[in-house]
Amino acid sequence: MSKLLDDSSWLDFEKAHVWHPYAPMEGALPCYPVAHAQGVQLTLEDGRNLIDGMSSWWSVIHGYNHPVLNSAAKEQLDRMAHVMFGGLTHRPAAELAARLISLTPEPLERVFLCDSGSVSVEVAIKMAIQYWQARGNTGKQRLLTIRRGYHGDTCGAMAACDPETGMHHLFNRVLPKHFFAEAPTAVNDANWHDSDIAGFRELIEAHHAEIAAVILEPIVQGAGGMRFYAPEYLRQVRALCDAHDVLLIADEIATGFGRTGTLFACEQAGIAPDIMCLGKAITGGYMTLAAVLTTTEISRTISARAPYAFMHGPTFMANPLACAVANASIDLLVGSPWQERIATMAEAFARRLSPCRDWEGVADVRIMGGIGVVELERPVNMSRITEGFVDRGVWIRPFGKLVYVMPPYIISELELDALLAAMTDAVAEELARG
What we know:
With 434 residues, this protein is α/β, with parallel strands linked by helices. Helix content is 36%, strand content 17%. It folds into two domains: 10-65 and 337-433, Aspartate Aminotransferase, domain 1 (Alpha-Beta Complex); 69-334, Type I PLP-dependent aspartate aminotransferase-like (Major domain) (Aspartate Aminotransferase, domain 2, 3-Layer(aba) Sandwich), CATH 3.40.640. It contains 13 helices and 16 strands. The strands form four sheets. Strands 4-12-11-10-7-5-6 form a seven-stranded mixed beta sheet, sandwiched between helices. α5 crosses α9 (296-303) and α12 (382-391) runs antiparallel to α13. The protein is globular, with a radius of gyration of 22 Å. 47% of the residues are buried.
Protein backbone atom coordinates (compact mmCIF):
# COMPACT_ATOMS: atom_id res chain seq x y z
CA MET A 1 0.00 0.00 0.00
CA SER A 2 1.41 3.38 -1.00
CA LYS A 3 1.81 6.07 1.66
CA LEU A 4 0.55 9.61 1.15
CA LEU A 5 2.33 10.82 4.30
CA ASP A 6 5.95 10.23 5.20
CA ASP A 7 7.16 9.19 8.64
CA SER A 8 8.15 12.72 9.61
CA SER A 9 4.94 14.47 8.58
CA TRP A 10 2.00 12.17 9.25
CA LEU A 11 1.54 13.29 12.83
CA ASP A 12 1.53 16.98 11.86
CA PHE A 13 -1.12 16.20 9.26
CA GLU A 14 -3.13 14.22 11.81
CA LYS A 15 -3.09 17.10 14.29
CA ALA A 16 -4.31 19.50 11.62
CA HIS A 17 -7.04 17.38 10.07
CA VAL A 18 -8.23 14.53 12.32
CA TRP A 19 -10.87 15.32 14.94
CA HIS A 20 -10.77 13.33 18.17
CA PRO A 21 -13.70 12.61 20.51
CA TYR A 22 -14.66 15.24 23.06
CA ALA A 23 -11.78 17.46 21.98
CA PRO A 24 -11.40 20.72 20.05
CA MET A 25 -9.72 20.82 16.67
CA GLU A 26 -7.86 24.03 17.49
CA GLY A 27 -5.67 23.96 20.59
CA ALA A 28 -6.43 20.29 21.04
CA LEU A 29 -5.41 18.28 24.08
CA PRO A 30 -2.17 16.27 23.85
CA CYS A 31 -2.53 13.18 21.69
CA TYR A 32 0.06 10.41 21.92
CA PRO A 33 0.80 8.29 18.82
CA VAL A 34 0.78 4.53 19.44
CA ALA A 35 3.10 2.37 17.34
CA HIS A 36 2.34 -1.04 18.85
CA ALA A 37 0.28 -2.67 21.57
CA GLN A 38 0.93 -5.97 23.33
CA GLY A 39 -0.69 -7.40 26.44
CA VAL A 40 -1.36 -4.40 28.69
CA GLN A 41 1.44 -2.30 27.18
CA LEU A 42 1.03 0.53 24.68
CA THR A 43 4.26 1.42 22.88
CA LEU A 44 4.40 5.01 21.65
CA GLU A 45 6.13 6.14 18.48
CA ASP A 46 8.94 7.60 20.57
CA GLY A 47 9.57 4.19 22.18
CA ARG A 48 7.99 4.82 25.58
CA ASN A 49 5.84 2.03 27.03
CA LEU A 50 2.63 2.76 28.92
CA ILE A 51 0.63 0.38 31.11
CA ASP A 52 -2.93 0.69 29.86
CA GLY A 53 -5.35 1.47 32.67
CA MET A 54 -8.39 2.09 30.44
CA SER A 55 -8.79 -1.10 28.35
CA SER A 56 -9.46 1.32 25.49
CA TRP A 57 -12.72 2.49 27.08
CA TRP A 58 -13.69 -0.78 28.79
CA SER A 59 -13.27 -3.00 25.72
CA VAL A 60 -9.82 -4.66 25.63
CA ILE A 61 -10.42 -7.12 28.45
CA HIS A 62 -7.91 -9.73 27.21
CA GLY A 63 -5.16 -7.25 26.44
CA TYR A 64 -3.79 -6.27 23.05
CA ASN A 65 -2.54 -8.46 20.22
CA HIS A 66 -3.91 -11.64 21.75
CA PRO A 67 -2.95 -14.73 19.71
CA VAL A 68 -6.36 -16.41 20.08
CA LEU A 69 -8.24 -13.35 18.86
CA ASN A 70 -5.67 -12.72 16.12
CA SER A 71 -6.16 -16.26 14.89
CA ALA A 72 -9.96 -15.96 14.89
CA ALA A 73 -9.78 -12.77 12.84
CA LYS A 74 -7.31 -14.22 10.33
CA GLU A 75 -9.27 -17.47 9.88
CA GLN A 76 -12.52 -15.62 9.28
CA LEU A 77 -10.84 -13.12 6.96
CA ASP A 78 -9.81 -15.99 4.70
CA ARG A 79 -13.49 -17.00 4.41
CA MET A 80 -15.18 -13.59 4.13
CA ALA A 81 -14.87 -10.22 5.79
CA HIS A 82 -18.47 -9.15 5.31
CA VAL A 83 -21.80 -9.97 3.71
CA MET A 84 -25.08 -8.12 4.11
CA PHE A 85 -27.40 -9.61 6.71
CA GLY A 86 -30.54 -8.87 4.72
CA GLY A 87 -31.50 -12.16 3.07
CA LEU A 88 -28.13 -13.75 3.86
CA THR A 89 -26.70 -15.27 7.02
CA HIS A 90 -23.56 -17.00 8.27
CA ARG A 91 -22.44 -19.34 10.99
CA PRO A 92 -20.44 -16.84 13.13
CA ALA A 93 -23.65 -14.88 13.77
CA ALA A 94 -25.56 -18.00 14.81
CA GLU A 95 -22.68 -19.12 17.02
CA LEU A 96 -22.55 -15.72 18.70
CA ALA A 97 -26.29 -15.65 19.30
CA ALA A 98 -26.08 -19.10 20.89
CA ARG A 99 -23.30 -17.97 23.21
CA LEU A 100 -25.12 -14.81 24.25
CA ILE A 101 -28.38 -16.63 24.93
CA SER A 102 -26.58 -19.23 27.03
CA LEU A 103 -24.86 -16.59 29.18
CA THR A 104 -27.60 -14.00 29.69
CA PRO A 105 -30.60 -14.45 32.00
CA GLU A 106 -33.82 -16.03 30.86
CA PRO A 107 -36.06 -15.21 29.06
CA LEU A 108 -33.67 -13.35 26.71
CA GLU A 109 -33.53 -15.55 23.62
CA ARG A 110 -33.80 -13.30 20.56
CA VAL A 111 -30.68 -11.50 19.35
CA PHE A 112 -30.30 -8.43 17.12
CA LEU A 113 -26.66 -7.81 16.14
CA CYS A 114 -25.64 -4.26 15.31
CA ASP A 115 -22.62 -1.99 15.03
CA SER A 116 -21.94 -0.14 18.26
CA GLY A 117 -23.15 0.54 21.77
CA SER A 118 -24.99 3.73 20.85
CA VAL A 119 -26.74 1.94 17.99
CA SER A 120 -27.76 -0.88 20.32
CA VAL A 121 -29.48 1.68 22.55
CA GLU A 122 -31.26 3.12 19.51
CA VAL A 123 -32.35 -0.41 18.60
CA ALA A 124 -33.61 -1.10 22.12
CA ILE A 125 -35.63 2.13 22.24
CA LYS A 126 -37.17 1.50 18.81
CA MET A 127 -37.88 -2.11 19.76
CA ALA A 128 -39.76 -1.04 22.90
CA ILE A 129 -41.82 1.58 21.07
CA GLN A 130 -42.61 -0.72 18.14
CA TYR A 131 -43.67 -3.45 20.58
CA TRP A 132 -46.32 -1.21 22.12
CA GLN A 133 -47.38 0.00 18.66
CA ALA A 134 -47.89 -3.64 17.65
CA ARG A 135 -50.03 -4.14 20.73
CA GLY A 136 -52.19 -1.18 19.73
CA ASN A 137 -50.95 1.02 22.55
CA THR A 138 -49.75 4.02 20.58
CA GLY A 139 -49.56 6.28 23.62
CA LYS A 140 -46.43 4.57 24.96
CA GLN A 141 -43.73 6.65 23.26
CA ARG A 142 -41.53 7.94 26.09
CA LEU A 143 -38.83 6.59 28.37
CA LEU A 144 -38.24 6.74 32.10
CA THR A 145 -34.66 6.74 33.31
CA ILE A 146 -32.48 8.07 36.12
CA ARG A 147 -30.27 11.10 36.27
CA ARG A 148 -26.48 10.77 35.94
CA GLY A 149 -26.93 8.13 33.24
CA TYR A 150 -25.07 7.84 29.96
CA HIS A 151 -26.30 5.74 27.03
CA GLY A 152 -24.40 6.94 23.96
CA ASP A 153 -23.89 9.74 21.49
CA THR A 154 -26.60 9.20 18.87
CA CYS A 155 -29.83 11.19 19.14
CA GLY A 156 -32.10 8.57 20.72
CA ALA A 157 -29.36 7.55 23.13
CA MET A 158 -28.54 11.18 23.98
CA ALA A 159 -32.18 11.81 24.87
CA ALA A 160 -31.89 9.18 27.62
CA CYS A 161 -28.73 10.74 29.07
CA ASP A 162 -28.93 13.26 31.90
CA PRO A 163 -30.20 16.46 30.25
CA GLU A 164 -28.49 18.78 32.73
CA THR A 165 -25.28 17.23 34.04
CA GLY A 166 -24.58 15.00 31.04
CA MET A 167 -22.35 15.61 28.05
CA HIS A 168 -25.23 16.37 25.68
CA HIS A 169 -27.05 19.32 27.26
CA LEU A 170 -26.26 21.43 24.17
CA PHE A 171 -28.76 19.36 22.18
CA ASN A 172 -31.63 19.34 24.69
CA ARG A 173 -33.94 21.47 22.58
CA VAL A 174 -33.90 19.08 19.63
CA LEU A 175 -34.06 15.78 21.53
CA PRO A 176 -37.21 13.89 22.58
CA LYS A 177 -38.29 14.66 26.14
CA HIS A 178 -38.33 11.79 28.61
CA PHE A 179 -38.90 11.34 32.35
CA PHE A 180 -35.93 11.49 34.72
CA ALA A 181 -35.95 10.26 38.30
CA GLU A 182 -33.26 11.29 40.75
CA ALA A 183 -30.30 8.93 40.70
CA PRO A 184 -30.19 6.42 43.58
CA THR A 185 -27.90 7.27 46.46
CA ALA A 186 -27.71 3.95 48.34
CA VAL A 187 -24.49 2.25 47.26
CA ASN A 188 -25.32 -1.19 48.66
CA ASP A 189 -28.25 -3.13 50.08
CA ALA A 190 -27.03 -2.63 53.64
CA ASN A 191 -27.80 1.10 53.49
CA TRP A 192 -30.92 0.78 51.36
CA HIS A 193 -33.90 2.95 52.27
CA ASP A 194 -37.23 3.04 50.49
CA SER A 195 -36.94 6.80 49.98
CA ASP A 196 -34.33 6.07 47.31
CA ILE A 197 -36.99 4.69 44.97
CA ALA A 198 -39.78 7.13 45.92
CA GLY A 199 -39.22 9.60 43.08
CA PHE A 200 -39.00 6.85 40.50
CA ARG A 201 -42.16 5.24 41.87
CA GLU A 202 -44.08 8.52 41.63
CA LEU A 203 -43.08 9.01 37.99
CA ILE A 204 -43.94 5.51 36.83
CA GLU A 205 -47.26 5.55 38.70
CA ALA A 206 -48.22 8.91 37.21
CA HIS A 207 -47.01 8.38 33.63
CA HIS A 208 -46.98 4.64 32.89
CA ALA A 209 -49.57 5.13 30.15
CA GLU A 210 -46.96 7.19 28.25
CA ILE A 211 -43.86 5.15 29.15
CA ALA A 212 -42.74 2.44 26.74
CA ALA A 213 -39.69 1.43 28.75
CA VAL A 214 -37.36 2.20 31.59
CA ILE A 215 -33.72 2.33 30.52
CA LEU A 216 -30.81 2.35 32.93
CA GLU A 217 -27.27 1.12 33.47
CA PRO A 218 -27.53 -1.65 36.06
CA ILE A 219 -25.52 -1.16 39.26
CA VAL A 220 -22.86 1.10 37.64
CA GLN A 221 -23.51 4.44 35.97
CA GLY A 222 -20.50 4.81 33.67
CA ALA A 223 -19.58 7.96 31.76
CA GLY A 224 -22.29 9.93 33.59
CA GLY A 225 -20.21 9.91 36.75
CA MET A 226 -18.83 6.45 37.53
CA ARG A 227 -21.45 6.03 40.25
CA PHE A 228 -22.43 2.72 41.88
CA TYR A 229 -25.82 1.92 43.40
CA ALA A 230 -27.54 -0.80 45.41
CA PRO A 231 -28.87 -3.94 43.70
CA GLU A 232 -32.10 -3.45 45.66
CA TYR A 233 -32.83 -0.37 43.56
CA LEU A 234 -32.74 -2.51 40.43
CA ARG A 235 -35.04 -5.10 42.05
CA GLN A 236 -37.50 -2.35 42.93
CA VAL A 237 -37.37 -0.99 39.37
CA ARG A 238 -38.08 -4.45 37.95
CA ALA A 239 -41.08 -4.87 40.25
CA LEU A 240 -42.48 -1.44 39.37
CA CYS A 241 -42.08 -2.11 35.63
CA ASP A 242 -44.01 -5.36 36.05
CA ALA A 243 -46.73 -3.70 38.09
CA HIS A 244 -47.27 -0.89 35.58
CA ASP A 245 -46.83 -2.72 32.26
CA VAL A 246 -43.55 -1.03 31.31
CA LEU A 247 -40.58 -2.74 29.65
CA LEU A 248 -37.14 -2.69 31.28
CA ILE A 249 -34.05 -2.06 29.14
CA ALA A 250 -30.71 -2.87 30.79
CA ASP A 251 -27.79 -1.01 29.22
CA GLU A 252 -24.96 -3.46 29.95
CA ILE A 253 -22.66 -2.02 27.29
CA ALA A 254 -20.06 -0.95 29.84
CA THR A 255 -20.82 -3.47 32.59
CA GLY A 256 -21.22 -6.65 30.54
CA PHE A 257 -18.66 -9.46 30.32
CA GLY A 258 -17.38 -9.43 33.87
CA ARG A 259 -16.25 -5.92 34.69
CA THR A 260 -18.33 -5.56 37.88
CA GLY A 261 -17.44 -9.00 39.26
CA THR A 262 -20.41 -10.84 37.77
CA LEU A 263 -20.72 -11.68 34.09
CA PHE A 264 -23.54 -9.14 33.80
CA ALA A 265 -24.38 -6.49 36.38
CA CYS A 266 -28.06 -7.54 36.42
CA GLU A 267 -26.95 -10.76 38.11
CA GLN A 268 -26.09 -8.81 41.24
CA ALA A 269 -29.78 -7.99 41.65
CA GLY A 270 -31.02 -11.37 40.46
CA ILE A 271 -33.28 -9.82 37.82
CA ALA A 272 -33.71 -10.13 34.07
CA PRO A 273 -34.58 -7.20 31.81
CA ASP A 274 -36.96 -7.37 28.86
CA ILE A 275 -34.26 -5.97 26.59
CA MET A 276 -30.49 -5.99 27.15
CA CYS A 277 -27.84 -3.98 25.30
CA LEU A 278 -24.30 -5.37 25.01
CA GLY A 279 -21.18 -3.93 23.39
CA LYS A 280 -17.66 -2.73 24.18
CA ALA A 281 -15.97 -5.90 25.48
CA ILE A 282 -18.02 -8.23 23.27
CA THR A 283 -15.10 -8.62 20.82
CA GLY A 284 -12.33 -8.03 23.33
CA GLY A 285 -11.80 -4.61 21.77
CA TYR A 286 -10.91 -5.94 18.31
CA MET A 287 -13.92 -4.92 16.25
CA THR A 288 -16.92 -2.69 16.68
CA LEU A 289 -19.98 -4.83 17.42
CA ALA A 290 -23.00 -4.76 19.70
CA ALA A 291 -26.01 -6.90 20.46
CA VAL A 292 -29.56 -6.38 21.68
CA LEU A 293 -31.24 -9.34 23.34
CA THR A 294 -34.96 -9.56 23.97
CA THR A 295 -37.75 -12.01 24.69
CA THR A 296 -39.72 -14.26 22.39
CA GLU A 297 -42.90 -12.43 23.37
CA ILE A 298 -41.52 -9.07 22.24
CA SER A 299 -40.10 -10.40 18.96
CA ARG A 300 -43.29 -12.32 18.11
CA THR A 301 -45.51 -9.34 18.89
CA ILE A 302 -43.50 -7.04 16.64
CA SER A 303 -43.37 -9.63 13.86
CA ALA A 304 -47.10 -10.35 13.97
CA ARG A 305 -48.30 -6.81 13.16
CA ALA A 306 -47.71 -4.53 10.18
CA PRO A 307 -45.07 -3.83 8.98
CA TYR A 308 -44.34 -7.45 10.13
CA ALA A 309 -40.68 -6.67 10.72
CA PHE A 310 -38.53 -4.77 13.16
CA MET A 311 -37.67 -1.55 11.38
CA HIS A 312 -33.93 -1.32 11.76
CA GLY A 313 -31.11 -2.61 9.57
CA PRO A 314 -27.49 -1.41 9.87
CA THR A 315 -25.29 -2.05 6.83
CA PHE A 316 -22.65 -3.81 8.91
CA MET A 317 -25.09 -5.66 11.13
CA ALA A 318 -23.70 -9.05 12.23
CA ASN A 319 -20.42 -8.46 10.43
CA PRO A 320 -18.94 -12.00 10.21
CA LEU A 321 -15.41 -10.86 11.02
CA ALA A 322 -16.60 -9.17 14.21
CA CYS A 323 -18.85 -12.12 15.12
CA ALA A 324 -15.98 -14.58 14.73
CA VAL A 325 -13.75 -12.52 17.01
CA ALA A 326 -16.60 -12.11 19.51
CA ASN A 327 -17.05 -15.87 19.66
CA ALA A 328 -13.35 -16.32 20.37
CA SER A 329 -13.37 -13.53 22.95
CA ILE A 330 -16.34 -14.97 24.85
CA ASP A 331 -14.78 -18.45 24.86
CA LEU A 332 -11.53 -16.95 26.07
CA LEU A 333 -13.33 -15.13 28.86
CA VAL A 334 -15.46 -18.00 30.19
CA GLY A 335 -12.49 -20.37 29.95
CA SER A 336 -10.27 -18.08 32.02
CA PRO A 337 -10.10 -17.40 35.78
CA TRP A 338 -11.68 -13.99 35.18
CA GLN A 339 -13.47 -13.90 38.54
CA GLU A 340 -10.17 -14.34 40.36
CA ARG A 341 -8.57 -11.65 38.22
CA ILE A 342 -11.38 -9.20 38.94
CA ALA A 343 -11.19 -10.00 42.66
CA THR A 344 -7.43 -9.39 42.61
CA MET A 345 -8.01 -6.03 40.96
CA ALA A 346 -10.64 -5.06 43.52
CA GLU A 347 -8.30 -5.97 46.37
CA ALA A 348 -5.50 -3.88 44.85
CA PHE A 349 -7.85 -0.93 44.34
CA ALA A 350 -8.97 -1.14 47.96
CA ARG A 351 -5.38 -1.27 49.20
CA ARG A 352 -3.94 1.49 46.98
CA LEU A 353 -6.88 3.84 46.37
CA SER A 354 -8.85 3.77 49.63
CA PRO A 355 -6.26 5.89 51.51
CA CYS A 356 -6.97 8.70 49.02
CA ARG A 357 -10.31 9.27 50.78
CA ASP A 358 -8.43 11.11 53.53
CA TRP A 359 -6.71 13.49 51.12
CA GLU A 360 -7.75 17.12 51.02
CA GLY A 361 -9.39 17.73 47.66
CA VAL A 362 -10.71 14.17 47.23
CA ALA A 363 -14.50 13.88 47.34
CA ASP A 364 -14.81 10.09 47.20
CA VAL A 365 -13.19 6.80 46.28
CA ARG A 366 -15.35 4.10 44.69
CA ILE A 367 -14.45 0.50 43.92
CA MET A 368 -16.44 -2.25 42.28
CA GLY A 369 -14.91 -5.30 40.63
CA GLY A 370 -12.45 -4.14 38.00
CA ILE A 371 -13.34 -0.46 38.37
CA GLY A 372 -11.42 1.95 40.59
CA VAL A 373 -12.48 5.60 40.86
CA VAL A 374 -11.04 8.61 42.64
CA GLU A 375 -13.41 11.57 42.48
CA LEU A 376 -11.87 14.97 43.18
CA GLU A 377 -13.68 18.04 44.44
CA ARG A 378 -12.97 19.94 41.24
CA PRO A 379 -12.07 19.07 37.65
CA VAL A 380 -8.52 18.11 36.82
CA ASN A 381 -6.28 20.02 34.44
CA MET A 382 -6.63 17.48 31.65
CA SER A 383 -3.46 18.33 29.71
CA ARG A 384 -1.29 18.49 32.80
CA ILE A 385 -2.49 15.33 34.52
CA THR A 386 -2.40 13.31 31.28
CA GLU A 387 1.19 14.36 30.71
CA GLY A 388 1.91 13.35 34.30
CA PHE A 389 0.50 9.89 33.72
CA VAL A 390 2.48 9.40 30.51
CA ASP A 391 5.69 10.58 32.20
CA ARG A 392 5.05 7.92 34.85
CA GLY A 393 4.58 5.20 32.23
CA VAL A 394 0.82 4.68 32.38
CA TRP A 395 -2.23 5.50 30.27
CA ILE A 396 -5.18 6.87 32.23
CA ARG A 397 -7.84 9.12 30.70
CA PRO A 398 -9.74 11.14 33.33
CA PHE A 399 -12.83 13.23 32.70
CA GLY A 400 -14.03 16.16 34.76
CA LYS A 401 -13.43 15.44 38.43
CA LEU A 402 -13.03 11.70 37.89
CA VAL A 403 -9.75 9.81 37.71
CA TYR A 404 -10.50 6.14 37.19
CA VAL A 405 -9.02 2.88 35.94
CA MET A 406 -10.46 -0.30 34.43
CA PRO A 407 -7.43 -2.33 33.31
CA PRO A 408 -7.43 -5.38 31.04
CA TYR A 409 -8.27 -8.49 33.03
CA ILE A 410 -4.88 -10.03 32.25
CA ILE A 411 -2.87 -7.32 34.00
CA SER A 412 -0.24 -8.78 36.34
CA GLU A 413 -0.06 -7.82 39.99
CA LEU A 414 3.26 -6.06 39.34
CA GLU A 415 1.79 -4.05 36.46
CA LEU A 416 -1.32 -3.27 38.48
CA ASP A 417 0.75 -2.02 41.39
CA ALA A 418 2.77 0.21 39.07
CA LEU A 419 -0.40 1.54 37.47
CA LEU A 420 -1.98 2.45 40.80
CA ALA A 421 1.21 3.97 42.18
CA ALA A 422 1.42 6.23 39.14
CA MET A 423 -2.28 7.06 39.44
CA THR A 424 -2.08 8.13 43.07
CA ASP A 425 1.22 10.00 42.57
CA ALA A 426 -0.22 12.01 39.67
CA VAL A 427 -3.42 12.76 41.60
CA ALA A 428 -1.39 13.92 44.60
CA GLU A 429 0.67 16.18 42.34
CA GLU A 430 -2.50 17.58 40.74
CA LEU A 431 -4.01 18.34 44.14
CA ALA A 432 -0.80 20.00 45.34
CA ARG A 433 -0.79 22.32 42.32
CA GLY A 434 -4.40 23.31 42.97
